[in-house]
Amino acid sequence: MPMKRTQLYIDDELYQKLNIEAVKEKRTVSSLVRELLAKEINMRGIKKTVKSGHILLRLAQVAAEGPIDLSTHGEDYLIEDF
Question: Fewer Cβ within 10 Å of end Cβ, the chain: N or C?
Answer without folding.
Answer: N
